[in-house]
């Protein structure tokens, strides 16, 4: 999916698979010049995945190897910052407060798995103590959705999926994003405010990587679903457990450690790519 995808690209992939002993079917366009399916059997998924990665290296094309069975997922759980919205909302608050650089550095290290998430969150929020709470409102007013966010959620919901926004960020943002995008449910951390100022404190317990995984499992169980019925998408280290547990777990424009550990990635395309990964055709995609 993305720039440069054409018949010659698909022919190269088909030939490479056949040379590895695969029985390769005819490829089929899901969206002309944007997304294409190529069925095959006889090659292990990991082998095909490594082959595809080699073939697409240096291009701006995303690819994934998935079982044909149970392809359309019935539960979506998504991270918020740098996944459903552009940028990191906490970093943006810090930038308005004049301490953007040190906070962004901590965020980068935490999202790459170099720091404990909860400790890093407490540290970053602590630097904001005494700042006016209206900074949150200013960031809220400038929220930008990731391209394809509304299409992803609207299309999956139209096909019977339940959708969850589960963020290590703050409920001040998740509620608004849930409304803007159309998620069924949202969860996040509480940013404590007193007398019109940020206190520098976060409500405990902090929602982090284990809670995201817990939400995936409990939401699936509540609907009689298996992990294979679920999709999860995020960009940071705190998203990895849910990404690795989901039937279709996707690292989205992710930090290096997350990209390396995920079985599926979107490095170039927007969130519509996750619909193509599930086999949706262009004419089936709804929403803005």
Task: Write the SSE topology.
Blueprint: E1 2-3, H1 7-19, E2 23-24, E3 28-31, E4 35-37, E5 40-41, H2 45-56, E6 60-61, E7 75-78, H3 89-96, H4 100-111, H5 117-126, H6 134-141, H7 149-158, E8 162-170, H8 171-181, E9 185-189, E10 191-194, E11 197-202, H9 209-222, E12 230-234, H10 240-245, E13 248-252, H11 256-261, E14 264-266, H12 272-277
Parallel strand pairs: 7-8, 7-12, 8-9, 12-13, 13-14
Antiparallel strand pairs: 1-6, 2-5, 3-4, 10-11
Helix pairs in contact: 1-2, 3-4, 3-6, 4-5
User: Structural class from helices and strands?
Assistant: alpha/beta
Give the CA-based shape.
Answer: elongated
What is the first-to-last residue Cα distance? 19 Å
What is the N-to-C order of secondary-structure elements (H for helix, E for strand)? EHEEEEHEEHHHHHEHEEEHEHEHEH
Number of helical regions: 12
Relative strand content: 15-25%
Radius of gyration: 20 Å
**Quick one: biggest sheet?**
6 strands, parallel
Low-pLDDT stretches are: none
Overall residue-averaged pLDDT value? 96
Strand order, largest beta sheet: 9-8-7-12-13-14
Binned, the helix content reads: 40-55%
E-strand count: 14
